[in-house]
Design goal:
Mean pLDDT: 89
Low-confidence stretches: none
Distance between the termini: 62 Å
Radius of gyration: 16 Å
Helix content: over 70%
Shape: elongated
Strand content: under 5%
Number of helices: 3
Largest sheet: none
Structural class: mainly alpha
Number of strands: 0
Order of helices and strands: HHH
């Protein structure tokens, strides 16, 4: 019995879920009543971008997208820490 390759199915699910999450996060960035809401939404957007980079690497077989995703996650982490400090000081 052969095992079915679920990679396209899982990648399609991640793309759809990521698009929905990014839509809600961008709406929260625009509408968010507090700066904390906007920061969390921006962090979610970076997480979705990382997931999309991993999906792109899986679908194309090129590892460069994982490197881009790691860079995005580092920028997102540093940005979140900087914004949290700014909110704490203000």
């Amino acid at each position: 019995m052969e095992m079915m390759d679920l990679t396209p199915v899982v990648c399609t699910f991640v793309i759809i879920a990521g698009a929905i999450a990014a839509t809600f996060a961008i709406a929260r960035i625009v509408k968010g009543p507090t700066a904390t809401d906007r920061i969390i939404a921006l962090d979610i957007t970076f997480s979705v971008a990382l997931a999309m980079g991993i999906v792109a690497a899986l679908l194309t077989g090129r590892t460069v997208y994982i490197d881009v995703g790691l860079g995005l996650s580092l920028v997102g982490f540093v940005g979140t820490i900087a914004w949290a400090r700014l909110i704490r000081l203000g």
